[in-house]
Model the fold of this input.
Amino acid sequence: MNEHMLDSVIKLFSKKRNIILIPHSSPDADALGSCLALYHFFKSKNEVNIISPNEYTDILNFLPGSKDILIYENDKVKCEDAFKKADVVFTLDFNSLNRARNLSSLISSSTTKTIMIDHHENPDNYADITISNSKMSSTCEMVYDFICSIDKSKIDNKIATCIYTGIVADTGSFRFPSTTSKTLKVGSELINYGVNVTEIFEKLHNNFQFKRLKLLGSAINNFKKIEGLPVVYTSITDKDQKVNDFKKGDSEGFVNFGLSVAEILCSVLFIEKKDEGLIKISFRSKGDFKVNIFASKYFKGGGHKHASGGISKLSLKETEEKFVSDITQYINQNYE
Ligand code: 5GP
Ligand code: MN
Done:
């Protein structure tokens, strides 16, 4: 945040405000951690609501304050009422309004001050204050900086736990290239507020149902390698989901297994979403392989260089065939 922005932010919060915090749809730990950290930070002196476009994985229910999150999809009237009273809206962990799905039009038509805090490349220009830095490991790391520049003394165990969870989730526990010495320093400072590092790891990674292990088995078994290319892909069909009682968040991390193979630079997961009539795609990569450019060019998506998402309206089989042809073309044009 530059000095001019900081001045406007400090002025904005010099009196009691009615604040709404919005994560992207199907929010992950970074998006919810950012919302909840700001929720705890602001709530002593302001009216604050978190509105998620839709449900999130119950794995994240351990985050302090999560029971107060409103879900727009389930509680439209209450959420729209909260919007009418709001004077400040934060959008967290997304760079384009369409990632707030059903909430996008409420955000764009509202006359409130909008503040974006986000770490994705090429942010859209919808906010009054855009705090964007694609070099940051996570939105949570940015929220930590934001809070420190306003009033660091307010950080407590709850705020620290929310921020730490988002940082470890988005950096793969301080492993991904986005991890800087400053990210580790922030992690270290958060631990001084009593964050329980082991418990957070257990809640995030070792807290699933037995059937989720079986689903992982089938996803791993379905992996295919594209001959002659450093690419593997797998899929989870609607049937796999029904057989294994699929719940939101169950497939989180599956795609990364593809990158455990020597020489593989890109791994892709296709998930059949019968109820939405589409295939949700997760892309992961290493080194110079930029999946965000591929995702936006071929699958209406985007994200980070090494972690992106997209969608396809074709059948699963047609999507896989299109993918094999598109990625072959993309690699031939950009990497050979
Ligand atoms: P995931 O594979 O975990 O769903 O998504 C990985 C990353 O890709 C997310 O953190 C987000 O930055 C981005 N992403 C996922 N889905 C979409 C999408 O539909 N559109 C865009 N633009 N980005 C997405
Ligand atoms: Mn993030």
Remarks:
- The chain has a mean pLDDT of 97.
